[in-house]
Every structure is written in C-alpha cells, then in structure tokens.
Amino acid sequence: LLGQILNHWFESEPLKATLATDAVIGAMASPHTPGSGYVLLHHVMGELEGRRGAWGYVAGGMGALSQAIAHAATARGAHVFAEKAVCHVLLGRDGQAQGVALEDGTEVRSKLVLSNASPQITFLELIPQEQLPKDFVQRIRQVDTRSPVTKINVAVDRLPNFLAAPNARDGQPLPHHQCSIHLNCEGTHLLHEAFTEATHGHPSSRPMIELCIPSALDPGLAPRGCHVVSLFTQYTPSVLAGGRSWDQQSRNAYADTVFDCIEDYAPGFKASIIGRDILTPPDLERIFGLPGGNIFHGGMSLDQLYFARPAPSYSGYRSPVPGLYLCGSGAHPGGGVMGAAGRNAAQVAIKDFRHL
C-alpha cells in the first residue's frame, strides 16, 4: 500500500499527499488501493540527464518529440505516412503478418509489423478474431482500461498569481511556475474522497489537479505575456451516474469546478482565461485511440504488469500472429514517455528479422 510506504518515510501530510498523486496518476485508484505504491515507483524509477526521478518538458510541445523520432527515421530511409488510418493487418495463408491495409485502400507490404496502438485496437480491431487464440482474445477484452483523467488545456492572458507565492512585479515566471504544481492534495484523504465520488459516477467535487505552465519554460508556445496552462485532473468516470454520457454541459460544469478550485489558490485565474479545451475519458479514447481514455493503454496494476502485460506468455513483444509485434504502452514495461517498450520491441523484431 502506498500509504504504508509514505508513512514510513515522511511525517508531513501535505508532502505525503503530493507524492501520492504520482501513485494514482492515470489510475482509477485511491492512495489506499493495494498496488498503488508501484505506480509511484514507476514514475520515479527513471532518470533524465543523470538526475534520478527527474522529468522534463519537450521544447515545442509533446508533438515535437514525435517529430524528432520521425526525422531520425526518415534520415535513415523510413517513409512516414501521417493521417493515414490503418484498416487491418494483412495476413498470409500461414497467418503471418505481411503488412497493413490503409482505409484509403493502399496496401503497405512488410515482413514485420510493429504496432504502437493499444492491445485492444491491435488485436480486437485490426486482426480477424479467428486468427487468435480464444483465451488470448478473452484476456485482451478483460484488460482493465478504466481511466479517471480529464485533461484541460487553457490559454490565459497572464501568468497565474498564487497566494502562497505572489508573482514578481515584472510578471516574469518564477521557479514554481516552471514546475509541476499539485492542487487539492493537502491530505491523502482528499484524494480518496475524490476517487470515491467517481466510483459512484460523479466527477470529483474537489478534483486532484496537476497544473503545468509549459510556456513558462518555452515562451514560443504563447504570445508575449500570455501562457498556456496544462491541467491533468481526476477523478472523472467514463460514464456518469444514471448511465448518462458526457455532453457539453457536463464538460463545462466539471471544468468550472476545476477552475473554481484553482481560483482559491490563485485569485484572478478565471478572469485570465481566454480559451479552453476539455478532454474527458471518452474524448481521449475517440481522439487518441486510448482505450477507456487510459493514457497507459491499460491500468498499471500489479496483475497487468511484467509477464502479464498485455497477457501472460505474451510479454516479450511477440504476439500470437507471427511477424506482428506490440511496441506501445500496452506492452512491458508500460506507460510513460520513456521509449522502453519501443526499444525492447525493436530489438526483438531485429533479432527475428535476421532469420527471415
């Protein structure tokens, strides 16, 4: 249990609760949920430029990382087809992957196919079910993909001014503006209460908020004096109480709850908003192909990690379809912007390719 780990090392409740947020990020779980301690470990186990547990911003936004990977690939002769939806994986008579078919009818032939899509899309939508073992299909269908995350992107005409650390007179970003700011986590019980509300189909009345201001580090993201604020919030259920789906009214009502909370910490924040983009779990699934809106392609619970990710006997990146490999967050070691699953999958694919 996360609580036991934090109680062993720390006394301050606000510090424990702030650390606890990284144990439930992206997870429909409470700090009191068994196994939550691993998710915290997962978020701090890596290092950046020699600093263990450090995180970094990508200059130009997260899309710049994808562009860097694309440029590295094209420089070595790869062809990148953007905005081309894959319809299904092409299979030979022996059931081996032979490429992909695009929705526009184009067929791209290949000896190997690596899928960075979720296990659900890869195996339940792009492959005929009769080509897969029944127990494997059942396992993929049973993966827990519940997600509590609603992502809100906000454009503001001035830097947020927090009561706890007022802005400088010149309006320039201070060190805390360049960090991850955690709100509504003065006590671990607040996170548990927010989680409990969502399990009953109600968006948290006092949501956990992780607030970042990327433009404080990367001024090119916004016009002079203005900023973009990224809000990673939870808990929000995929389906609201009574079986209701998210509509514009419920989206805006939840966003207003989040903004009211921020206003308590930084008066004037609501008045500074000039644009907002609200992405609930169903929106994240529809737009980005994240199953259930889950940023990790599936819960990072202990029963869905290591040798069991995405399914027992298939944690080594190979799939039941010869020549088809899984290289995204749904593969070992799971989610996070680290590239480990992709690198490991590439090594396995290269090894197999030498024997073709």
Walkthrough of the structure:
- There is one protein chain.
- With 356 residues, the chain is α+β, with helices and mostly antiparallel strands.
- It has helices spanning 2-9, 13-24, 36-44, 63-74, 119-124, 134-142, 188-199, 248-265, 269-272, 281-288, 340-353, and strands at 47-48, 51-52, 86-91, 97-102, 107-109, 113-115, 150-156, 181-183, 208-212, 227-234, 273-279, 324-326.
- The protein folds into two domains: 2-56 and 148-288, no CATH class; 83-144 and 297-354, 3-Layer(bba) Sandwich (FAD/NAD(P)-binding domain), CATH 3.50.50.60.
- Helix content is 31%, strand content 15%.
- The strands form four sheets. Strands 8-9-10-7-11 form a five-stranded antiparallel sheet.
- A hairpin with a 5-residue loop joins strand 3 and strand 4.
- Helix 1 (2-9) packs antiparallel against helix 2 and helix 2 (13-24) crosses helix 3 (36-44).
Topology:
Elements: H1 2-9, H2 13-24, H3 36-44, E1 47-48, E2 51-52, H4 63-74, E3 86-91, E4 97-102, E5 107-109, E6 113-115, H5 119-124, H6 134-142, E7 150-156, E8 181-183, H7 188-199, E9 208-212, E10 227-234, H8 248-265, H9 269-272, E11 273-279, H10 281-288, E12 324-326, H11 340-353
Parallel strand pairs: 6-12
Antiparallel strand pairs: 1-2, 3-4, 4-5, 7-10, 7-11, 8-9, 9-10
